Amino acid sequence: MLTIGELAACAGVTVRAVRHYHAKGLLPEPERDHSGYRRYDAGAMVELLRIRTLAEAEIPLARVRELLQAGEEEFAAAVADIDRRLEAEIQERQRHRERIARLTSGEGLALPSEVVAFLDRLRALGVDERIVQAERDGWIPLAALFPGRVAEWIGRKQEQLTGPEFTGFYLDLSEALERSDDDPSLVELADRLAAYLTKLADERGEEYLGGPAAVEPALAELMDTLAFDTVPSARRLIKLLKERGWDGWTALRRAPAVLRTPPASS
Fold this sequence. Notes:
The chain is mainly α and 266 residues long.
């Protein structure tokens, strides 16, 4: 025979729960022994386990009482129905888990596969995640507003990444994230990038570099600001590039001649 504490421990519930089931009429109270203690037999253990199992399946206690009083066939049918409901809930929760996993990765929800592949390639190259995030956030509105052009634009970026100069730009910018605006490395990076852009424009034409040229200036400015907030050193780099004849970040273009100033010495 078991005390109430021993019964509760064996069934994996609290003593308070046992008393609650007594109060609700789910578990009959046993007679007390000569010392005044309740003593429970194996039958009480089985009944308590049945109650606990049904309660954990989120069956209302009123329904639990009905099931405990039902015949074997009715009880079996009710349990089968509970099992089907739980299975449906498990499948729904699994779908929620899959959605959450997609939210964690982020890109796949709002971006086409070509852009996701480009972002993964940047990560594989060792580009800082903050820069990858800035790229991702910039491509989300582009994919939404210009779905027919994204494949063309991202194709250019992928092709440019095959060259060491463009890859080096991303890696150098990654290193520059922790440096101050007056760090000489940003000037050196601007020199190399400007030379690369000029060479590429001469060989392939400015349209090849322009990328999302269809972006309205207000949207381009908003996207530039988003990138600058994520990668602060990019703002300083754009200023240096403008001095070297190139302007913009989202929609790269040659800077008007009137804005050009001699490159700062390193």
